Amino acid sequence: MATDPLLRIEVVYALAERQAIVELDVAPGTTVSEAVGRSGLARQFPEIEARPLACAIFGRAVPPTCVVGAGDRVEILRPLLIDPKENRRQAAARSKAAAGGGRR
Asked: How far apart are CA 93 and CA 39, in angstroms?
């Protein structure tokens, strides 16, 4: 009986000052959650297990139950430091102030 060939994937975790990339060969049907577990990154970065797992494949958010494909880059996401809408509001306010928006 022939076995399915293994799929080569990457699991990535990036911080501002460093990133870790682990290449894995996984069986077809492997989920994102299983790939993250096999990567061993949670041992290097305990904060990964301290919160619910959030991942993306090539920048597109996917659930932990998503099945990976050959060549996928699984990215472990960190929580946002600021809400994107709030960040845009603050940037607009700074821009307006810098352009003299507060003149009388």
From this structure: 42
Strand partners, 10: 23, 73
Percent composition of the chain: helix, strand, coil (DSSP 3-state, to 5):
30, 25, 45
User: Cα(63)–Cα(27) distance, rounded to whole angstroms?
Assistant: 19
Tens-digit pLDDT profile for residues 22-61: 999 999 999 999 999 999 999 999 999 988 999 999 999 9
Give all strands of the β-sheet with 73-76 in edge-to-edge order: 19-26, 7-14, 73-76, 55-57, 60-62
